[in-house]
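User: Is it possible to get a 3D structure for a protein together with its bound compound? The compound here is uridine 5'-triphosphate. I've pasted both below.
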Amino acid sequence: MPRTRPAPIVLSVGGSLLRSGDPARDGAYFAALATLLGRVGRQRPLVVTTGGGQTAREYIGLGRRLGLTEVELDELGIEVTRLHARLLAARLGPPTPAHPPASVREVVAALAHASPVILGGTEPGHTTDGVAALVAARLRAEAVVNATDVDGIYSADPRHRPAARRFDRLDWEQLRAMVVRDTSGGAGQHFPFDRLGVETLDRAGIPLRVVDGRDLVNLGRALRGERFAGTNVTGRAR
Ligand code: UTP
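Assistant: Yes, that's possible. Here is the predicted structure of the complex:
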């Protein structure tokens, strides 16, 4: 009888987790994250997207001063996300591809031989959250895990509004309303989870788990489908 392969899982790591401004802290984080991803990736097919964070915003800001177009600014952002993917992939070593796949199609091909597969951005106009969602839809993934620098989705930004409350569970309509409220679509903006990601996962009926990626024990739980602290976004597929 054929052995059933566990369903793939897709992780989107926010750039703010990868570049804090403190090289010693970032080195330790990359190393510990790579260890966790290697372990989970051996148990099931795992795809990871890496964000560009503050570094991407710095390059996009510089490009904007130089009068670059929005598409050119997005392309700068993509280069930074790919740099972060390369760092993580190189730490993991073969068979994880050292050169991050540049499209969803390339991810599918790479995953036939390696897990985890790490990539950055692909096309101008969205973020690595959107890439993670597109990959998940193509792979019929069990879930997307979004690792960020807050421990879930709040009613308002908890860094500025101490009274904001964390949602344990949201449906897609609620998350869509929050994303639309907080974004206008320019290059380098900071989204809770990007619009393309919300639309793609809602259509595909794939749940989203939002967790604090600084807590690698909790991140491991979210990746393995165990109980985790954070926000679960679910809803009926349309
Ligand atoms: P990020 O995915 O890092 O976006 O891509 P972000 O919203 O800044 O997320 P955090 O802060 O890392 O969590 C950085 C920028 O690169 C461009 C966009 O301009 C994005 O804002 N980008 C990225 C693309 O145009 N396409 C992609 O597929 C990925």
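The mean pLDDT is 92. The pocket of uridine 5'-triphosphate is lined by residues 14-16, 51-53, 56, 74, 77-78, 81, 121-128, 131, 187-191 (CB under 6 Å).
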